[in-house]
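> run fold Ribonuclease HII
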Amino acid sequence: MARTAVALPADLLAAPSTGPNFLIEQHLGGVVCGIDEAGRGPWAGPVMAAAVVLDPGRVPVGINDSKKLSAAKREVLYGEILGCAQVGIGEASVEEIDELNILQATFLAMGRALGGLPTRPDHALVDGNRKPPLGIPATTVIKGDARSLSIAAASIIAKVFRDHRMTELAKIHPEYAWERNAGYGTAAHSRALAIVGLTPFHRRSFAPIRKLMTQES
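> ok
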């Protein structure tokens, strides 16, 4: 039976002090995936998204908003989630970011992540307040990675997968220290841009990069 998006009760949208839980998923019923992205703000690299359907009986201990976890803990949970959950990963390239804008590219990555799941969920929980066109009922949850275990799991998968990708790109362009800054506009990244210039992996639609291109022209 087709499901429609629903308004969640206010008590489910309150951030639990003990960390994310499974209450929203249980309220919705059926197969629910959490969707989150990583890499909207960096100056370089693709934007990634993950879609995760957790098995309620096999939820790894310690899942939380990826930003609240150490890199080592994220890596451990990344492997555990991949080992016990349905996971889809999607990305949008630098070229797609520059052509579409970062919001639409993020939506594109989210749709690809959903399409990467082995089974199609009944409902999607999406972190934030902007709903992507997914083709299934979806509910946005502000600060969802602090509320929903499924979204928190997706935040870990997206973050770690993107960090791995930026580490690989850093081997091609080591001057920018992407293995440490993940393409964000750190002082080291800025200095390298001033000395070495742009790479094909820089987002030319982003203001700091456009400014540098103007100065070089």
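The two ends are 58 Å apart (CA to CA).
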